[in-house]
Predict the 3D structure of the following.
Amino acid sequence: MKRFSSVLALGSILLLNVETALGFCGFYVAKADTKLFNKASQVVIARDGDKTVLTMANDFKGDPKEFAVVVPVPTFIQKDQIHVGDKKIIDHLDAYTSPRLVEYFDQNPCLRLAMRERMSAMASRAAPAPRAEIQAQALGVTIEAQYAVGEYDIIILSAQQSGGLETWLKENGYRIPDGATDVLGSYIRQKMRFFVAKVNLEEQSKLGFNYLRPLQVAYESPKFMLPIRLGTVNADGPQELFIYTLTKKGRVETTNYRTVRLPTGMELPVYIKTDFADFYRAMFDRQVDKENMKTVFLEYAWDMNWCDPCAAEPLSGKELRDLGVFWIEDDSAPSPSGNPPPRSMRPVPGGQARDAFVTRLHLRYDAKHFPEDLVFQETSDRGNFQGRYVLRHAWDGGEDCAAAKEYRQSLPKRHEQEAQTLAGLTGWDVGKIRRQMRLPDGQGAQEKRWWQRIWK
C-alpha cells in the first residue's frame, strides 16, 4: 500500500521536503541554502501571462515503491506538458538566491578620504537594466489520461465529490490521512484536476537513477497560485517551503498573506563567519515567531543578468529554459563560428540579456497558520533585494594620525552594537555573545566607566 508522507514539493503535494553605505559590494564568504532546514521542499514557478511551468523537487526519502504524489492542477494536463527535470539546476538556483554572508576589511583610516571616494564610485555603478475506468466512474472519478514520463507513471483525474475520490485512492493502494476529505472537496468545487504520479520501478532501473528527479508540468491558467493545504493534512509538524519564481516583469509576492522582507544589511561579529548556519536558522526562527508563522518571507529578488556579491553564477540561458523560462533563447546553442557563446557572468558579458527576474520566497507553514492556498501576483518592482549580512574586520595598522586615533576610539562602540544586533536578531544571550567577541561584559561596555572619565 502506498504510504503518504508529509514531504511537500508543489506545496499541495501529498508525498507518499567599510560602512554599511558601501552597498552590495563585498567578499562573499558563506550562504544559507535550503540544506540548513529539515522538511524543506522546493518549487520553481516560471510564468508569463497565463502560461506557467511548475517544477517540483522531491525530497522524499525511502523506498521508491512507497512514493506517490497527488497534486491539484487548474486545468487538464496532456502528456507532452509533463517533463522530468534536473535537480542540479534547482540546486544552482538555490545557491544563486541563497541569503549570504559577506565581509569587508577596514582600510587605513589615514587614507579614509581616498577610500570613500573609491567606494562611492563603486557603489554608483548602474545595474544592467477499461476496468479501472469503470470502477472510477462508479465513484464519480474520471481517469482523463494516463502517461508514462521517464520513471513516473502519471494519471490525470477529475472527480465529482471528495468521498468518491478518496475511495478511489484507497482502493488503488493509497493511504489517505484523516482530514483530507474537506480539502479534496474544496479543490473539486474549484473544478481542479488531480495530477497523480508514482514511480515505475522497472523504468527507473533501466534509466539508472537512484534518486527521484523533479517533475515539471506546463499549463495555461489565469490562476497564479500554489495549492499547499493538501500537504498539511498528515504533516508531522511545520514544514519549510522555498518558492523560486521566474518572471518577465518583476518581483512576485503573495496576495492573501503578508510578504515581508527579511532583515538585511546588518553588521555582525566576525566570529559568525564560522557559525553562519546557526545564526541564520536562529534569525529565521525568530522572524517566524515574531510574525506568528503567518508570513511569507522574501529572501532574494534580482535580475538574472547579474549578482553582487555572487553566491553562485547566474543561471545560463539553457538552465533557465530547462526550468521553463520559455520566453528566452538557449544561449548554449552554437554560434555561426561553431562554438557556444561565453557562459553567463556577472553581469552577463555581451550577448543577449536574460529577460528573467527571480524571486525567492520562504515560508514555514502548517494547516493552522496557512489555511488557504498561496495566491501570487507579479509586480513591476525590479528593485534588487538580498538577505545579506556583513562582517567588518577592524584595521590593526600602526599609523597614529588623528583619523587613526578617532577610528580606534570608535571600535568598542561598534563592537558592542554588533553584539546587540546579533542578540536582537537571534534571541541569543548578549553576555555570551560578548564573551565570544572577547568584549567586556555588561551594559555600557562600549563606553569608558564613569571614573575613567574623571581621571583621564
About this structure: The first strand starts at residue 14 and ends at 15. The chain is about 25% helix and 25% strand. Residues 12 and 228 are 3 Å apart (CA to CA).
